[in-house]
Structures are given as C-alpha cells and as structure tokens.
Amino acid sequence: MTTPGSLVWRLSMRWRVLVDRALAPLELTHAQYTLLANLYGRPERPSQRGLADRTGLEPLYVSKLARALEAAGLIEREPDPADTRAVRLALTERGRAVTGEAVGIVRGLQERLLAPIGGPGSPQTEAFVATLEKLLEGDPS
C-alpha cells in the first residue's frame, strides 16, 4: 500500500535528483542551489544560522556548503560585527550571475514538474502548495 509519507519522500527525492541533473552543467548541487537561491535578490546579508532556519538544512551542513561556495567564488563569508560567533553571507558578482542562470533552469524544471496539475499559478498547484505548507507547519510529535 502506498502511504502519503512514502509519496512525499519519493517526490522529494525525485525533485532533488532532477535539480541535481539540471544544475550539473553549472557545477551546482540541489543543496548548493538552495543556499544560493535564498541569497539571490536579497540586499541583507543573512547569517548562516538564519539560512539554516529558512531552508531547513542543518547549520553544520550550511557551514560546509558556504565554505565550498566561497572557495568556488560564488559567495562571500564575513564575520558578523555584532556577534563574533555568526557569519554573514552574500553573493559575489559571479555568484549572482550563476544563481540567476540556475534560477531560470529550476523554474523551467518546476513548470514541467507541475504541468500535470495545471502548472505554476493554477488552482490545483495553489491548492497543492497550500497543502504542503500546512503539512510543514504541523508538529507531528
């Protein structure tokens, strides 16, 4: 019997694999894209911890990703002057260009994935998104 949990898991894994494949030419992974996309178009420099909270990624993993993205010249990491434990992140000029290209790729992929339920902006997609948000807000413990 197929359960909702197994379907959510399979969809999540399928999405990650599709994004990884689509972004491979840019030498980005889904996780790296998630971090970059959350920095894209934001004037503020969020902390690594703030990005971990916003993306659902573990703080230690965000730190590892940030170091790799810094080494690739896509982001800048700066100590927070108000909190010596915190590190603030921002896209470099190259990072903005690569992320802009990646966002376009992922949007196209998302349109194709959502096409069976009407595509982005359709009532079915809006209901699907609302359902997912409701599930993410709930506390199953």
UniProtKB/TrEMBL annotation:
Keyword Lyase: no
Coiled coil: none
Keyword set includes Ribosomal protein: no
UniProt xrefs under SUPFAM superfamilies: Winged helix' DNA-binding domain (SSF46785)
Keywords: DNA-binding, Transcription, Transcription regulation
Record SMART domains: HTH_MARR
Name under which the protein is recorded: MarR family transcriptional regulator
Superkingdom, taxonomy of origin: Bacteria
InterPro entries xref list: HTH_MarR-typ (IPR000835), MarR/SlyA-like (IPR039422), WH-like_DNA-bd_sf (IPR036388), WH_DNA-bd_sf (IPR036390)
Ranges of residues in domain HTH marR-type: 1-137
